[in-house]
Design goal:
Elements: E1 9-13, H1 21-37, E2 41-45, H2 53-57, E3 62-65, H3 76-84, H4 93-100, H5 102-111, E4 119-123, H6 129-139, E5 143-147, E6 157-159, H7 165-173, E7 178-183, E8 187-195, E9 202-203, E10 207-210, H8 218-222, E11 228-230, H9 237-253, E12 259-267, E13 273-279, H10 289-296, H11 301-310, H12 315-321
Helix pairs in contact: 1-11
Length: 322
């Protein structure tokens, strides 16, 4: 067994206060076990139960962020670690805060010519019924309604008719002040992980997701074995390569680093890919897709965890390298 003493004392941040706490605890437990199996002096650290200032007091020298959603993937914990001077895995403050906001992500991608489905933004308490009834006129039916800043498909609804719009928007608004209404793209659902930073970043194999009745929701993501994940994806070789190139560009324009995963829909008629969102602290559970794709590329779960930990950095250090 290789002893990774050069990493020093490592905190695996898991749990946290977001709606994805349960998934984060599963991710963090897997990462912790993997790092320890590789000889890393790694310890669990739950920011919902301990103050982050303890990281400095207890002598932690780097952090593996296995937190998902708010207070873990949105730039807040990244900012705290910047102030503490403790290098961490994944994207920095700005890239994290933009990437968790699906609307801001879309605005950046559209400005850079990266295709993403048409959308409308509704703000909690500021929409009237008449306005809601016009959303399907603009985006078509079915359409997707989701909170702008939640992950793991929490609060996502597929709206089939005008009568369902109000309920779906109200449910999403209960989770977030901003509600994203999005054009539904019928076709293949795929996801593509990215490892690395800047010019050295590379896309891993694309995974095609085949969920029961096309419903890739929270339950089907984490708690059933009914969803099929195809890697190799079975897409034509040129199509997979084009998606890999597109997600790399999308990752770089957001300023992401370390790792990430971008979800894509491929229009069944035109075969044009549309990017849905990016995850800057992807899941690392037994059902998670980054480890699955990495395995197809010959990288074990344990080696992936060590590789990610080795990429831990601080924003100002990365800026100094540029």
């Amino acid at each position: 067994m290789t002893i990774h003493q050069d990493f020093g004392k490592v905190a695996v941040l898991m749990g946290g206060k977001s709606a994805e706490r349960e998934v984060s605890l599963m991710s963090g437990s897997g990462v912790l076990k993997a790092l320890q199996s590789k000889g890393v002096d790694a310890h669990a650290f739950d920011p919902a139960e301990r103050n982050l200032s303890e990281l400095k007091k207890k002598g932690f020298q780097r952090c593996f962020i296995a937190l998902h959603g708010r207070f873990g993937e949105d730039g807040t914990v990244q900012g705290a670690l910047e102030l503490l001077g403790i290098p961490y895995t994944g994207s920095g403050v700005m890239a994290s805060s933009i990437s968790i906001d699906k609307v801001m992500t879309k605005r950046v991608w559209l400005a850079e010519g990266i295709p993403t489905p048409k959308y409308q933004l509704l703000r909690r308490g500021a929409y009237q019924r008449e306005q809601l009834m016009k959303v399907p006129d603009d985006l078509g039916l079915p359409l997707i309604v989701k909170p702008a800043r939640e992950g793991s498909s929490i609060g996502v609804a597929k709206v089939q008719g005008y009568s369902e719009v109000q309920g779906a928007v109200d449910a999403a608004a209960a989770l977030d002040a901003d509600v994203l209404c999005e054009q539904f793209v019928a076709g293949d659902e795929v996801t593509c992980p990215i490892l690395g930073t800047g010019d050295s970043a590379r896309a891993l194999p694309v995974i095609r997701i085949v969920a029961p009745e096309g419903n890739y929701d929270y339950q089907n993501k984490y708690f059933t074995d009914d969803t099929k994940y195809l890697v190799p994806s079975g897409l034509p070789e040129g199509e997979e390569a084009a998606i890999q190139d597109l997600v790399l560009k999308a990752y770089r324009v957001l300023g992401c680093r370390g790792w990430g995963r971008i979800d894509v829909m491929i229009d069944a008629q035109t075969r044009k890919p549309y990017l849905l969102e990016i995850n800057t602290s992807p899941g690392m559970t037994g059902h998670s897709l980054v480890p699955m794709s990495a395995r197809a590329a010959g990288i074990s779960y344990e080696d992936l965890c060590v590789q990610l930990l080795a990429s831990a950095a601080l924003d100002h250090e990365e800026a100094a390298k540029a």
